Protein backbone atom coordinates (compact mmCIF):
# COMPACT_ATOMS: atom_id res chain seq x y z
CA UNK A 1 0.00 0.00 0.00
CA UNK A 2 1.19 3.47 -0.84
CA UNK A 3 2.11 5.88 1.94
CA UNK A 4 0.34 9.23 1.86
CA UNK A 5 2.07 12.61 1.53
CA UNK A 6 2.93 14.45 4.75
CA UNK A 7 0.69 17.38 4.04
CA UNK A 8 -2.34 15.42 2.93
CA UNK A 9 -5.49 15.98 5.01
CA UNK A 10 -7.52 13.07 6.34
CA UNK A 11 -11.11 12.95 7.60
CA UNK A 12 -12.29 11.00 10.62
CA UNK A 13 -15.96 10.22 11.29
CA UNK A 14 -17.03 10.75 14.90
CA UNK A 15 -19.36 8.18 16.47
CA UNK A 16 -22.31 9.76 18.36
CA UNK A 17 -21.25 8.08 21.62
CA UNK A 18 -17.82 9.68 21.36
CA UNK A 19 -19.21 13.22 21.34
CA UNK A 20 -20.59 14.05 24.78
CA UNK A 21 -21.51 17.55 25.94
CA UNK A 22 -19.42 19.10 23.17
CA UNK A 23 -16.20 17.16 23.71
CA UNK A 24 -14.78 14.38 21.54
CA UNK A 25 -13.41 11.31 23.29
CA UNK A 26 -9.83 10.32 22.62
CA UNK A 27 -11.29 6.92 21.72
CA UNK A 28 -12.39 8.45 18.41
CA UNK A 29 -8.69 8.63 17.50
CA UNK A 30 -7.47 5.22 18.53
CA UNK A 31 -8.31 1.82 17.07
CA UNK A 32 -10.49 -0.61 19.02
CA UNK A 33 -9.24 -4.22 19.32
CA UNK A 34 -11.42 -5.29 16.38
CA UNK A 35 -9.76 -2.65 14.17
CA UNK A 36 -6.43 -4.54 14.31
CA UNK A 37 -4.43 -1.40 15.10
CA UNK A 38 -5.77 0.54 12.09
CA UNK A 39 -7.98 3.63 12.14
CA UNK A 40 -10.32 4.29 9.21
CA UNK A 41 -10.04 7.67 7.49
CA UNK A 42 -10.97 9.36 4.21
CA UNK A 43 -8.60 11.41 2.04
CA UNK A 44 -9.49 15.03 1.40
CA UNK A 45 -7.59 14.68 -1.88
CA UNK A 46 -10.34 12.34 -3.12
CA UNK A 47 -13.51 13.48 -1.37
CA UNK A 48 -15.13 16.46 0.35
CA UNK A 49 -15.85 16.33 4.08
CA UNK A 50 -19.60 16.50 3.47
CA UNK A 51 -19.47 13.69 0.90
CA UNK A 52 -17.33 11.62 3.23
CA UNK A 53 -20.00 12.10 5.90
CA UNK A 54 -22.91 11.32 3.60
CA UNK A 55 -21.19 8.26 2.13
CA UNK A 56 -20.52 6.96 5.64
CA UNK A 57 -24.16 7.50 6.67
CA UNK A 58 -25.36 5.88 3.43
CA UNK A 59 -23.54 2.71 4.46
CA UNK A 60 -25.66 2.65 7.63
CA UNK A 61 -22.82 3.72 9.92
CA UNK A 62 -23.45 6.24 12.73
CA UNK A 63 -21.59 9.57 12.69
CA UNK A 64 -22.25 13.07 14.04
CA UNK A 65 -19.65 14.84 11.94
CA UNK A 66 -16.16 14.88 10.47
CA UNK A 67 -12.89 16.04 12.05
CA UNK A 68 -9.64 16.39 10.15
CA UNK A 69 -5.91 15.89 10.71
CA UNK A 70 -2.82 16.09 8.54
CA UNK A 71 -0.76 13.00 7.75
CA UNK A 72 2.29 14.57 9.41
CA UNK A 73 0.33 14.93 12.65
CA UNK A 74 -0.14 11.15 12.67
CA UNK A 75 3.53 10.68 11.75
CA UNK A 76 4.57 12.81 14.75
CA UNK A 77 3.01 10.05 16.85
CA UNK A 78 4.89 7.34 14.90
CA UNK A 79 1.73 6.37 13.00
CA UNK A 80 1.95 5.59 9.27
CA UNK A 81 -0.89 6.59 6.95
CA UNK A 82 -1.55 4.52 3.84
CA UNK A 83 -4.11 4.51 1.05
CA UNK A 84 -6.72 1.77 1.28
CA UNK A 85 -9.36 2.26 -1.43
CA UNK A 86 -12.49 0.17 -1.04
CA UNK A 87 -15.20 -0.74 -3.54
CA UNK A 88 -17.74 1.47 -1.73
CA UNK A 89 -15.23 4.17 -0.75
CA UNK A 90 -12.30 4.90 -3.04
CA UNK A 91 -11.11 7.71 -0.71
CA UNK A 92 -10.54 5.27 2.17
CA UNK A 93 -7.20 5.35 3.99
CA UNK A 94 -5.75 3.78 7.12
CA UNK A 95 -3.66 5.13 9.97
CA UNK A 96 -1.56 2.21 11.15
CA UNK A 97 -0.94 2.26 14.93
CA UNK A 98 0.87 -1.09 15.02
CA UNK A 99 4.21 0.61 15.78
CA UNK A 100 2.70 1.62 19.12
CA UNK A 101 1.93 -0.52 22.14
CA UNK A 102 -1.45 -0.23 23.81
CA UNK A 103 -0.30 2.47 26.25
CA UNK A 104 1.18 4.59 23.46
CA UNK A 105 -1.95 4.15 21.35
CA UNK A 106 -4.02 5.58 24.19
CA UNK A 107 -1.75 8.58 24.66
CA UNK A 108 -1.50 9.18 20.90
CA UNK A 109 -5.32 9.07 20.73
CA UNK A 110 -5.46 11.89 23.25
CA UNK A 111 -2.96 14.06 21.44
CA UNK A 112 -4.63 13.53 18.06
CA UNK A 113 -8.13 14.14 19.46
CA UNK A 114 -6.95 17.43 20.99
CA UNK A 115 -5.32 18.52 17.71
CA UNK A 116 -8.38 17.63 15.64
CA UNK A 117 -10.80 19.29 18.06
CA UNK A 118 -8.78 22.51 18.03
CA UNK A 119 -9.22 22.71 14.25
CA UNK A 120 -13.00 22.41 14.53
CA UNK A 121 -15.46 20.45 12.44
CA UNK A 122 -14.59 19.78 8.80
CA UNK A 123 -18.26 18.94 8.44
CA UNK A 124 -21.06 18.88 10.94
CA UNK A 125 -24.68 18.81 9.74
CA UNK A 126 -25.77 20.90 12.74
CA UNK A 127 -23.37 23.81 12.22
CA UNK B 1 6.26 -5.66 53.59
CA UNK B 2 9.02 -4.90 56.02
CA UNK B 3 9.30 -6.77 59.28
CA UNK B 4 8.58 -4.38 62.07
CA UNK B 5 9.53 -6.61 64.98
CA UNK B 6 12.36 -4.37 66.03
CA UNK B 7 10.09 -1.34 65.88
CA UNK B 8 8.50 -2.33 69.13
CA UNK B 9 11.11 -0.98 71.41
CA UNK B 10 11.31 -1.01 75.12
CA UNK B 11 12.60 2.44 75.84
CA UNK B 12 11.53 2.63 79.44
CA UNK B 13 14.53 4.50 80.69
CA UNK B 14 12.38 6.14 83.35
CA UNK B 15 10.70 2.84 84.19
CA UNK B 16 7.33 4.43 83.58
CA UNK B 17 7.19 4.73 79.82
CA UNK B 18 6.72 2.13 77.12
CA UNK B 19 6.27 2.59 73.40
CA UNK B 20 3.72 0.65 71.37
CA UNK B 21 3.64 0.80 67.61
CA UNK B 22 1.08 -0.14 64.98
CA UNK B 23 1.60 -0.05 61.25
CA UNK B 24 -0.91 0.95 58.58
CA UNK B 25 -0.39 -0.35 55.04
CA UNK B 26 -2.26 0.96 52.02
CA UNK B 27 -2.38 3.85 49.61
CA UNK B 28 -4.11 6.12 52.10
CA UNK B 29 -1.04 5.91 54.35
CA UNK B 30 1.69 6.21 51.72
CA UNK B 31 2.62 9.76 52.65
CA UNK B 32 3.18 8.64 56.25
CA UNK B 33 0.05 10.26 57.57
CA UNK B 34 -3.06 8.76 59.10
CA UNK B 35 -6.52 9.87 58.00
CA UNK B 36 -8.51 11.25 60.90
CA UNK B 37 -11.09 8.53 60.17
CA UNK B 38 -8.60 5.98 61.54
CA UNK B 39 -7.92 7.68 64.89
CA UNK B 40 -10.68 5.72 66.67
CA UNK B 41 -8.50 2.66 65.96
CA UNK B 42 -5.88 4.01 68.34
CA UNK B 43 -8.39 4.56 71.11
CA UNK B 44 -9.76 1.05 70.58
CA UNK B 45 -6.21 -0.36 70.53
CA UNK B 46 -5.45 1.32 73.86
CA UNK B 47 -8.68 0.03 75.39
CA UNK B 48 -8.09 -3.49 74.05
CA UNK B 49 -4.56 -3.56 75.48
CA UNK B 50 -5.87 -2.48 78.85
CA UNK B 51 -8.73 -4.96 78.75
CA UNK B 52 -6.39 -7.86 77.94
CA UNK B 53 -3.91 -6.51 80.52
CA UNK B 54 -6.61 -6.73 83.18
CA UNK B 55 -7.10 -10.40 82.29
CA UNK B 56 -3.32 -10.97 82.41
CA UNK B 57 -3.05 -9.33 85.81
CA UNK B 58 -5.86 -11.50 87.18
CA UNK B 59 -4.15 -14.61 85.82
CA UNK B 60 -0.88 -13.64 87.46
CA UNK B 61 -2.62 -12.89 90.73
CA UNK B 62 -5.13 -15.69 91.18
CA UNK B 63 -5.48 -14.97 94.87
CA UNK B 64 -6.42 -11.35 94.36
CA UNK B 65 -10.14 -10.79 93.95
CA UNK B 66 -9.77 -7.27 92.64
CA UNK B 67 -7.44 -5.30 90.42
CA UNK B 68 -5.23 -2.69 92.07
CA UNK B 69 -6.96 0.61 92.54
CA UNK B 70 -7.07 2.62 89.33
CA UNK B 71 -5.23 -0.13 87.45
CA UNK B 72 -6.32 1.31 84.12
CA UNK B 73 -6.90 4.87 85.19
CA UNK B 74 -3.22 5.30 86.01
CA UNK B 75 -2.14 4.02 82.61
CA UNK B 76 -2.58 6.35 79.71
CA UNK B 77 -1.43 6.43 76.12
CA UNK B 78 -0.52 9.38 73.92
CA UNK B 79 0.28 9.55 70.23
CA UNK B 80 3.82 10.90 70.00
CA UNK B 81 4.77 10.45 66.36
CA UNK B 82 3.83 8.90 63.03
CA UNK B 83 6.78 7.05 61.54
CA UNK B 84 7.46 6.17 57.93
CA UNK B 85 6.53 3.03 56.11
CA UNK B 86 3.58 3.33 55.28
CA UNK B 87 2.41 5.02 58.48
CA UNK B 88 3.49 3.87 61.92
CA UNK B 89 1.74 5.58 64.79
CA UNK B 90 3.81 5.40 67.97
CA UNK B 91 1.94 5.43 71.23
CA UNK B 92 3.75 6.37 74.41
CA UNK B 93 2.30 4.57 77.39
CA UNK B 94 2.71 6.14 80.81
CA UNK B 95 2.12 4.11 83.92
CA UNK B 96 2.64 4.89 87.59
CA UNK B 97 6.19 4.98 88.90
CA UNK B 98 7.19 2.51 91.56
CA UNK B 99 5.87 -0.99 92.02
CA UNK B 100 9.11 -2.75 91.08
CA UNK B 101 10.85 -4.88 93.67
CA UNK B 102 14.20 -6.63 93.80
CA UNK B 103 12.45 -9.90 92.97
CA UNK B 104 10.17 -8.30 90.39
CA UNK B 105 12.21 -5.59 88.65
CA UNK B 106 9.66 -5.10 85.90
CA UNK B 107 6.72 -2.91 86.80
CA UNK B 108 3.60 -5.05 87.29
CA UNK B 109 1.57 -2.77 85.02
CA UNK B 110 4.10 -3.25 82.27
CA UNK B 111 4.13 -7.01 82.74
CA UNK B 112 0.34 -7.06 82.44
CA UNK B 113 0.37 -4.75 79.42
CA UNK B 114 2.96 -6.90 77.62
CA UNK B 115 0.90 -9.99 78.28
CA UNK B 116 -2.20 -8.15 77.19
CA UNK B 117 -0.49 -7.25 73.95
CA UNK B 118 0.56 -10.88 73.46
CA UNK B 119 -3.05 -11.94 73.87
CA UNK B 120 -4.27 -9.38 71.34
CA UNK B 121 -1.59 -10.39 68.83
CA UNK B 122 -2.36 -14.07 69.37
CA UNK B 123 -6.09 -13.43 68.84
CA UNK B 124 -5.46 -11.95 65.37
CA UNK B 125 -2.67 -14.41 64.49
CA UNK B 126 -5.03 -17.30 65.13
CA UNK B 127 -7.91 -15.52 63.37
CA UNK B 128 -5.75 -15.19 60.25
CA UNK B 129 -5.49 -19.01 60.31
CA UNK B 130 -9.25 -19.35 60.81
CA UNK B 131 -8.83 -20.33 64.47
CA UNK B 132 -11.22 -18.47 66.70
CA UNK B 133 -11.81 -18.38 70.45
CA UNK B 134 -15.01 -20.02 71.68
CA UNK B 135 -16.05 -16.78 73.34
CA UNK B 136 -14.88 -13.32 74.35
CA UNK B 137 -16.34 -10.85 76.79
CA UNK B 138 -18.92 -8.45 75.42
CA UNK B 139 -16.59 -5.56 76.21
CA UNK B 140 -13.82 -7.05 74.05
CA UNK B 141 -16.26 -7.62 71.20
CA UNK B 142 -17.38 -4.01 71.46
CA UNK B 143 -13.76 -2.84 71.36
CA UNK B 144 -12.91 -5.16 68.44
CA UNK B 145 -15.83 -3.60 66.60
CA UNK B 146 -14.14 -0.23 66.88
CA UNK B 147 -10.61 -1.45 66.15
CA UNK B 148 -9.93 -1.30 62.40
CA UNK B 149 -13.50 -0.33 61.47
CA UNK B 150 -12.21 2.19 58.93
CA UNK B 151 -9.93 -0.30 57.11
CA UNK B 152 -10.80 -0.48 53.43
CA UNK B 153 -10.19 -3.23 50.89
CA UNK B 154 -6.49 -3.47 50.09
CA UNK B 155 -5.45 -1.96 53.44
CA UNK B 156 -4.07 -3.65 56.52
CA UNK B 157 -3.07 -2.91 60.05
CA UNK B 158 0.01 -4.66 61.43
CA UNK B 159 0.25 -5.51 65.08
CA UNK B 160 3.81 -5.76 66.22
CA UNK B 161 5.10 -8.10 68.84
CA UNK B 162 8.70 -8.44 69.92
CA UNK B 163 8.50 -12.22 70.26
CA UNK B 164 6.64 -12.93 67.04
CA UNK B 165 8.62 -14.12 64.04
CA UNK B 166 6.16 -12.63 61.55
CA UNK B 167 4.06 -9.49 61.80
CA UNK B 168 0.41 -9.99 62.59
CA UNK B 169 -1.76 -8.63 59.84
CA UNK B 170 -5.30 -7.34 60.29
CA UNK B 171 -7.37 -6.83 57.15
CA UNK B 172 -11.04 -5.89 56.85
CA UNK B 173 -11.80 -9.52 55.99
CA UNK B 174 -9.84 -11.06 58.91
CA UNK B 175 -11.52 -8.60 61.23
CA UNK B 176 -14.98 -9.33 59.82
CA UNK B 177 -14.50 -13.09 60.18
CA UNK B 178 -13.19 -12.81 63.74
CA UNK B 179 -16.00 -10.57 64.98
CA UNK B 180 -18.79 -12.46 63.23
CA UNK B 181 -17.49 -15.72 64.79
CA UNK B 182 -17.89 -14.14 68.20
CA UNK B 183 -21.01 -12.16 67.55
CA UNK B 184 -23.83 -12.19 65.04
CA UNK B 185 -22.85 -8.77 63.77
CA UNK B 186 -19.88 -6.44 63.31
CA UNK B 187 -19.39 -2.72 62.76
CA UNK B 188 -17.82 -1.05 59.76
CA UNK B 189 -17.46 2.46 58.38
CA UNK B 190 -18.91 2.68 54.86
CA UNK B 191 -19.43 5.38 52.25
CA UNK B 192 -21.88 5.10 49.37
CA UNK B 193 -24.64 6.92 47.53
CA UNK B 194 -28.32 6.13 47.76
CA UNK B 195 -31.68 7.33 46.58
CA UNK B 196 -34.15 9.05 48.95
CA UNK B 197 -37.33 7.00 49.04
CA UNK B 198 -39.12 8.90 51.76
CA UNK B 199 -39.03 10.85 55.01
CA UNK B 200 -40.27 9.00 58.08
CA UNK B 201 -42.19 10.99 60.63
CA UNK B 202 -40.00 9.77 63.48
CA UNK B 203 -37.10 7.65 62.29
CA UNK B 204 -35.43 9.72 59.60
CA UNK B 205 -34.68 9.12 55.93
CA UNK B 206 -35.60 6.03 53.96
CA UNK B 207 -32.67 5.35 51.61
CA UNK B 208 -32.09 2.70 48.97
CA UNK B 209 -28.68 1.84 47.49
CA UNK B 210 -27.35 -0.82 45.14
CA UNK B 211 -24.71 -1.96 47.62
CA UNK B 212 -26.65 -2.06 50.87
CA UNK B 213 -30.32 -2.19 49.92
CA UNK B 214 -32.87 -0.22 51.90
CA UNK B 215 -32.13 1.39 55.25
CA UNK B 216 -33.38 4.15 57.51
CA UNK B 217 -30.89 6.90 58.32
CA UNK B 218 -31.48 8.66 61.64
CA UNK B 219 -31.87 12.36 60.87
CA UNK B 220 -33.56 15.15 62.81
CA UNK B 221 -37.16 15.17 61.63
CA UNK B 222 -37.30 18.91 60.84
CA UNK B 223 -34.07 18.66 58.85
CA UNK B 224 -35.32 15.59 57.03
CA UNK B 225 -38.62 17.26 56.16
CA UNK B 226 -37.13 20.59 55.14
CA UNK B 227 -34.01 19.49 53.24
CA UNK B 228 -34.77 16.01 51.97
CA UNK B 229 -38.56 16.01 51.80
CA UNK B 230 -38.68 18.13 48.62
CA UNK B 231 -35.98 15.91 47.04
CA UNK B 232 -37.57 12.48 46.94
CA UNK B 233 -35.82 10.20 44.40
CA UNK B 234 -32.70 12.43 44.56
CA UNK B 235 -29.28 10.97 45.34
CA UNK B 236 -27.49 11.53 48.63
CA UNK B 237 -23.89 10.71 49.55
CA UNK B 238 -23.46 9.06 52.92
CA UNK B 239 -20.66 8.03 55.22
CA UNK B 240 -21.87 5.87 58.09
CA UNK B 241 -20.72 3.46 60.76
CA UNK B 242 -23.12 0.55 60.48
CA UNK B 243 -23.66 -2.85 62.04
CA UNK B 244 -23.55 -5.61 59.45
CA UNK B 245 -24.45 -9.27 59.71
CA UNK B 246 -22.53 -12.32 58.39
CA UNK B 247 -23.89 -11.66 54.88
CA UNK B 248 -22.84 -8.01 55.03
CA UNK B 249 -26.45 -6.90 55.29
CA UNK B 250 -26.90 -3.67 57.23
CA UNK B 251 -28.71 -4.34 60.51
CA UNK B 252 -28.53 -0.86 61.99
CA UNK B 253 -26.92 2.54 61.56
CA UNK B 254 -24.66 3.38 64.49
CA UNK B 255 -23.40 6.80 63.47
CA UNK B 256 -23.92 9.23 60.60
CA UNK B 257 -20.58 10.86 59.73
CA UNK B 258 -21.83 12.73 56.67
CA UNK B 259 -25.01 13.00 54.66
CA UNK B 260 -25.62 15.44 51.83
CA UNK B 261 -27.61 15.82 48.65
CA UNK B 262 -25.74 15.15 45.44
CA UNK B 263 -25.75 18.38 43.43
CA UNK B 264 -27.51 18.72 40.07
CA UNK B 265 -24.36 18.35 37.98
CA UNK B 266 -23.22 15.25 39.84
CA UNK B 267 -26.74 13.86 39.49
CA UNK B 268 -26.51 14.52 35.74
CA UNK B 269 -23.21 12.57 35.58
CA UNK B 270 -24.80 9.68 37.43
CA UNK B 271 -27.70 9.75 34.98
CA UNK B 272 -25.24 9.75 32.06
CA UNK B 273 -23.55 6.65 33.50
CA UNK B 274 -26.92 4.94 33.95
CA UNK B 275 -27.93 5.84 30.39
CA UNK B 276 -24.81 4.13 29.02
CA UNK B 277 -26.19 0.91 30.48
CA UNK B 278 -29.03 1.16 27.96
CA UNK B 279 -26.74 0.99 24.92
CA UNK B 280 -27.52 -1.97 22.65
CA UNK B 281 -25.06 -4.75 21.94
CA UNK B 282 -22.73 -3.95 19.04
CA UNK B 283 -23.27 -0.21 19.53
CA UNK B 284 -19.86 0.40 17.92
CA UNK B 285 -20.17 -2.27 15.28
CA UNK B 286 -19.38 -5.94 15.81
CA UNK B 287 -17.98 -7.12 19.13
CA UNK B 288 -18.91 -4.08 21.18
CA UNK B 289 -20.83 -4.30 24.46
CA UNK B 290 -22.63 -1.79 26.65
CA UNK B 291 -20.84 -0.99 29.91
CA UNK B 292 -21.00 -3.79 32.48
CA UNK B 293 -22.65 -3.33 35.88
CA UNK B 294 -19.21 -3.45 37.52
CA UNK B 295 -17.89 -0.69 35.22
CA UNK B 296 -20.96 1.45 35.95
CA UNK B 297 -20.64 0.86 39.69
CA UNK B 298 -16.98 1.93 39.66
CA UNK B 299 -17.83 5.02 37.56
CA UNK B 300 -20.58 5.97 40.03
CA UNK B 301 -18.14 5.59 42.93
CA UNK B 302 -15.63 7.77 41.11
CA UNK B 303 -18.18 10.53 40.48
CA UNK B 304 -19.27 10.31 44.12
CA UNK B 305 -15.70 10.68 45.32
CA UNK B 306 -15.01 13.66 43.08
CA UNK B 307 -18.50 15.16 43.06
CA UNK B 308 -17.05 18.65 43.38
CA UNK B 309 -15.23 18.11 40.04
CA UNK B 310 -18.12 16.44 38.23
CA UNK B 311 -18.65 19.56 36.11
CA UNK B 312 -15.33 18.70 34.40
CA UNK B 313 -16.23 15.09 33.56
CA UNK B 314 -17.07 13.77 30.10
CA UNK B 315 -18.31 10.19 30.21
CA UNK B 316 -18.09 7.74 27.29
CA UNK B 317 -18.68 4.04 26.77
CA UNK B 318 -15.76 1.75 25.86
CA UNK B 319 -16.39 -0.91 23.22
CA UNK B 320 -15.23 -3.74 25.51
CA UNK B 321 -17.93 -3.08 28.14
CA UNK B 322 -16.13 -0.34 30.05
CA UNK B 323 -16.52 3.36 30.78
CA UNK B 324 -14.12 6.21 30.09
CA UNK B 325 -14.20 9.51 31.99
CA UNK B 326 -12.13 12.30 30.47
CA UNK B 327 -11.37 15.64 32.06
CA UNK B 328 -8.86 18.50 32.00
CA UNK B 329 -7.19 19.59 35.20
CA UNK B 330 -4.01 21.58 35.91
CA UNK B 331 -2.86 21.57 32.26
CA UNK B 332 -3.42 17.81 32.06
CA UNK B 333 -5.85 15.95 29.83
CA UNK B 334 -6.65 12.83 31.84
CA UNK B 335 -8.60 9.67 31.12
CA UNK B 336 -9.88 7.34 33.79
CA UNK B 337 -11.06 4.04 32.36
CA UNK B 338 -13.08 1.33 34.07
CA UNK B 339 -12.95 -2.04 32.34
CA UNK B 340 -15.67 -4.68 32.14
CA UNK B 341 -14.68 -5.94 35.62
CA UNK B 342 -14.81 -2.42 37.09
CA UNK B 343 -11.00 -2.26 37.43
CA UNK B 344 -9.56 1.19 36.85
CA UNK B 345 -6.59 2.82 35.18
CA UNK B 346 -5.60 6.40 34.57
CA UNK B 347 -3.44 7.94 31.85
CA UNK B 348 -2.97 11.37 30.42
CA UNK B 349 -1.02 13.92 28.43
CA UNK B 350 0.18 17.35 29.40
CA UNK B 351 -1.37 19.98 27.16
CA UNK B 352 1.50 22.45 27.64
CA UNK B 353 4.54 20.15 27.44
CA UNK B 354 4.34 17.44 24.80
CA UNK B 355 7.08 15.35 26.42
CA UNK B 356 5.14 14.97 29.67
CA UNK B 357 2.59 12.19 29.92
CA UNK B 358 1.27 9.50 32.22
CA UNK B 359 1.30 5.88 31.04
CA UNK B 360 -1.85 3.86 31.75
CA UNK B 361 -1.56 3.05 35.45
CA UNK B 362 -3.86 0.43 36.98
CA UNK B 363 -5.26 0.70 40.51
CA UNK B 364 -6.40 -2.02 42.89
CA UNK B 365 -9.53 -0.17 43.88
CA UNK B 366 -11.39 3.11 43.50
CA UNK B 367 -9.98 4.42 46.75
CA UNK B 368 -6.40 4.01 45.50
CA UNK B 369 -7.27 5.64 42.15
CA UNK B 370 -8.92 8.60 43.86
CA UNK B 371 -6.03 9.03 46.28
CA UNK B 372 -3.59 9.08 43.36
CA UNK B 373 -5.60 11.74 41.56
CA UNK B 374 -6.07 13.75 44.73
CA UNK B 375 -2.38 13.58 45.52
CA UNK B 376 -1.16 14.68 42.10
CA UNK B 377 -4.00 16.73 40.72
CA UNK B 378 -5.63 18.23 43.80
CA UNK B 379 -5.56 22.00 43.98
CA UNK B 380 -2.02 23.21 44.43
CA UNK B 381 -0.47 19.74 44.43
CA UNK B 382 2.61 18.84 42.43
CA UNK B 383 1.97 16.87 39.28
CA UNK B 384 4.10 13.86 38.32
CA UNK B 385 7.18 14.34 36.16
Give the integer mean of the pLDDT values of chain A.
Answer: 95
Order of adjacent strands in the largest pleated sheet of chain B = 2-3-1-4-5
Which pair of chains has the greatest number of interface residues, and how are they split between the two chains? A-B, 20 and 27 residues
Please give the domain count of chain B: 3
Given as residue ranges, the uncertain stretches of chain A (5+ residues, pLDDT < 50) are none
Pattern of helices and strands of chain B? EHEEHHEEHEEEHEEHHEEEEEH
Helix content of chain A: 25-40%
Determine the structural class of chain A based on helices, strands and strand pairing. alpha+beta
- What is Rg of chain B? 25 Å
**Oligomeric state as shown:** heterodimer
How much helicity do the residues of chain B have?
25-40%
Radius of gyration of chain A: 13 Å
Strand content of chain A: 15-25%
Category by helix and strand content of chain B:
alpha+beta
Mean pLDDT of chain B: 85
Envelope shape of chain A: globular
What would you call the shape of chain B?
globular
Number of domains of chain A: 1
From the N-terminal CA to the C-terminal CA of chain A, the straight-line distance is 36 Å
Amino acid sequence: MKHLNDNEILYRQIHPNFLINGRVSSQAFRPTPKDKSCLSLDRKALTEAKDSYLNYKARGLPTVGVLELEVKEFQDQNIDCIEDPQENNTAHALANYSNLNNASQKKAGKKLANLAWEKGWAHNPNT
Amino acid sequence: MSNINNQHQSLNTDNDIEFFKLKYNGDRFEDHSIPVDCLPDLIAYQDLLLDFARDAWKEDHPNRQRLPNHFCKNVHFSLVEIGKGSAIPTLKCHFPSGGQTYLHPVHPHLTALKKGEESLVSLFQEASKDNYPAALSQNKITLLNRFGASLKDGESLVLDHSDSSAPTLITAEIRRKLITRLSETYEKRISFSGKILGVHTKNGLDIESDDFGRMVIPVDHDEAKEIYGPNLEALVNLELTVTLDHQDKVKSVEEVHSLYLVDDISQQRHDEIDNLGNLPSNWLGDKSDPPSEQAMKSAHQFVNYFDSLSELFYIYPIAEGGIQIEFDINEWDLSVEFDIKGCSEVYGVNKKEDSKDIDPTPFENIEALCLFLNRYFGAGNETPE
